[in-house]
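[Q] Does anyone have a clean structure-token version of this?
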Amino acid sequence: MTAQGYTVFETAIGACAIAWNPRGVSALQLPESTQTRTVARLRRRMAPDVQPGDPPPAVRAAIDGIVALLEGEPIDLTAVALDETGLAAFERSVYAVARSIAPGSTLTYGEVAARLGDPSAAREVGQALGNNPFAVIVPCHRVLAAAGGIGGFSAGGGAATKRRMLAIERARVGDAPDLFDAERPPPRPIRST
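[A] Here you go.
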């Protein structure tokens, strides 16, 4: 990637915004109540002077994958390059574990903490995910509270948006079987160019 910029794109849950730079995707913003608010929130995370632009091929592929995922296709976004500059090592570790959760699957905050080697760090995992600048690419919506509770979600619409995204992915929330258990196909990877 050779340029920096952002663009807005439509998904099944509303207009999202994505920003990039030469290192990769630098932010993804889920829909707010208006497209103007979505862009404003993205720009607060980025340099305020970041300008709209045409996404390079790798970002276009990421957008296509995000759109497909939010339409219910089992898309694997782990190949999408992220610019994690400025993130703490713990946040990067949490995001790596979250990225390993396949569409339609979930972990709890405690399970993520255990995979990081510190089962007592569930609260810190939740805080890191609450600051996730790459929602959907780093699928923080797939991390739930203990005992299958939905947990928090910092995107517009809060927990209702998280629940909607999980329903689109046919993810189970809680221990009860759901109607989609036999229908979950394996994730299809997105290839970066």
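[Q] Thanks! Anything notable?
[A] Residues 176-182 have pLDDT under 50 and may be disordered.
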